[in-house]
Amino acid sequence: MEINIINFNTTIGVKKPRTIQGIANTIDCPFCDVEHLVNIIDTDDNIILLKNKYNVMEPSDQLVLIETDQCKSDIPDYPKEQMRRVIHMGVKHWIEMLNCGKYRSVIFFKNFGPMSGGTIQHPHMQLVGYPELDPELMFDPVEFEGLKIYERQGVELNTSTNPRIGFSEYNLVLHDEAYAGLETEQAALTPREESLNLLADLIKETVTFMKNYFKRPNFSYNLFFYNVEKQMRVKIMPRFATPPMYVGYNIHLRPTSIPSFAENLKNHLKEQGYFQ
Questions:
Q1: Which of 81, 130, 197, 259 has CA 20 to 30 A from 47's CA?
Q2: Using one digit for the tens of pLDDT, what is the confidence trace for 159-204?
Q3: pTM surpassing 0.90?
Q4: Same domain? 168 vs 99
């Protein structure tokens, strides 16, 4: 079985500050100390993109997108405009990295919570450019198929029927309509503004729904962005203990409650006026 594998520099890794409850080794949040942030690449008010001080994966270039100056907040707390600006900035730089010619693969993702694999509580996303990793080994297109919950402006929201790990995974899939009217070269870079805004809105609604649905003090999730044949996909995944069948044997689990996952989120969107 072909896999991507990369070195993780443990000498650098042990120096990383950790502020997430349960694994914290410091009370000082490095992302709150804005005056001492270095290697800043871009800003938009309280949104900051900078080079990751702890570049643990080798070879790669790691960037951090600080989403807000509110350390104890997260996506469900953001005003709609804040969420849209975060997604616009992240997607802009992700696409620039994909097209700069320096990297074979570029990933764009978010960790939140102690089960997500992250170390810093302050809400942030990450972009990582890999000069060697094979993008075709990073996902299976079937993982984005699912029971459709909502679709407008070429943006489809579904519940995955072929989940990567197994429980309540949601997908956002951009179709041709999201790129309609754009020049071919432009369409390969980013969707229409209204479609990208809707993508941001649906990410916010889905994360808000999951947080309220699972009601766990250690609520955790990941966002993963994918470039699939020049069109965007996003996977929104709540995080629990990873099933041992997946860890040990690469066995994917398909929960029997997938239809209820879809119906519950659809009802939430109805309450928010998305079907009017």
A1: 130
A2: 999 999 877 899 999 999 999 888 766 556 789 999 999 999 999 9
A3: yes
A4: no
